[in-house]
TrEMBL record:
It holds the Pfam family NAD_binding_2. This is 3-hydroxyisobutyrate dehydrogenase. One of its GO terms (biological process) is L-valine catabolic process. The keyword Oxidoreductase applies. Keywords: Branched-chain amino acid catabolism, NAD, Oxidoreductase. The lineage of its organism: Eukaryota, Fungi, Dikarya, Ascomycota, Pezizomycotina.
């Protein structure tokens, strides 16, 4: 077990969404739950479900839809691509989670629902409102994550919880989430976990562009990429993108950039998150001087044939950065 208290962990957990993030989260869950626990899973991609079930046949059970997952689970987690998917999974009248909550067999059971997707705050609040109508005893939280695929695999992600630090469910939520990650940060109230995540990814994306430009600029001036990265690490420009996810291939051996930009956080997802952050800023009246230009860079990179579907740090390639510098040393 991790630092989570096994006595506070549920015996039946539902998990919907087995993509690049969801699958390793499920694997970490099953490894850390008490013996005899079961995880009920669903995904529209049948191959992903079959793969996980085959790896853990005694602990993981596949379900036909979200409703069946909810009927069999006390706690349900979702990790989905966009707001439309979240709406469908939770609110579809025939196959959604709400359909199970409003049924006579489960209406009296209080359930914990955690959506780990990164979506717009308006959709999150709409889903929460509808769920409260279906089942007033059910608690729904936004719990987006940060750390990317590497963090999901290594169980080092941070969770940003849309609730107050004094929420009575905090001990249970923390114990559960720490099986899949490190820090669990209550952000104040409903949808504020998402507001925190969008602010974080806005900053991360803008730093990625700046780091790519600064690395390219220094390297073109004649500075070795490793030396330049060590300069940034020792100076006021120090940041996690440069130190851990450096966009220049070969600087950080474990970074996606050093593996052909495979894995990591896809450039299309960063474009989506920057777009959601810019929309949130507009609604709030925030002046984001770099938002529109940053969104433009990620939009163009996500559409470029040599960048699409790759890690978001591929913007270094999009901006014309030198990738074979190490071979020419």
């Amino acid at each position: 077990m991790s630092s989570a208290d096994s006595n506070s962990l549920p015996n039946s957990i539902g998990f919907i969404g087995l993509g690049a993030m969801g699958k390793p989260m499920v694997i970490n869950l099953v490894k850390r739950l008490p013996v005899g626990s079961h995880i009920f899973i669903h995904d529209v991609v049948a191959a992903a479900v079959e793969e996980v079930c085959a790896s853990f046949p005694d602990a993981i059970v596949k379900c036909a839809n979200a409703k069946e997952v909810a009927e069999k689970s006390d706690v349900i987690l979702t990790m989905l691509p966009e707001g439309a998917h979240v709406k469908s999974v939770y609110l579809d009248p025939a196959t959604g989670i709400a359909a199970a909550l409003s049924s006579s067999s489960s209406s009296s059971t209080a359930k914990l629902l955690l959506d780990c997707s990164t979506i717009d705050t308006a959709t999150n609040l709409h889903v929460k409102e509808q769920l409260s109508i279906s089942s007033p005893t059910t608690s729904f939280y936004d719990a987006p994550v940060s750390g990317g695929v590497i963090g999901a695999v290594n169980a080092t992600m941070a969770f940003f919880l849309g609730c107050s630090p004094s929420d009575p469910n905090i001990p249970r939520l923390t114990a559960l989430l720490q099986t899949m990650g490190g820090k669990v940060i209550p952000c104040g109230g409903p949808s504020l976990g998402l507001a925190a995540k969008l602010s974080n990814n806005y900053l991360s994306g803008i730093i990625t562009i700046a780091c790519s430009e600064a690395m390219d600029m220094g390297m073109r001036a004649g500075i070795d990429a490793d030396v330049l990265a060590s300069v940034f690490a020792a100076g006021t420009a120090q940041n996690a993108i440069c130190d851990v996810f450096n966009p220049v291939p070969g600087v950080c051996p474990k970074a996606p950039s050093s593996n052909g930009y495979q894995g990591g956080f896809r450039v299309q997802l960063m474009r989506k998150d920057i777009g959601l952050a810019v929309d949130m800023a507009r609604r709030l009246g925030t002046r984001n001087a770099l938002g529109t230009s940053g969104l433009g860079v990620f939009t163009a990179a996500s559409e470029a044939a040599d960048c699409k579907d790759l890690d978001s740090r591929v913007v270094y390639r999009y901006l014309g950065g030198k990738e074979d510098w190490k071979e020419k040393k």
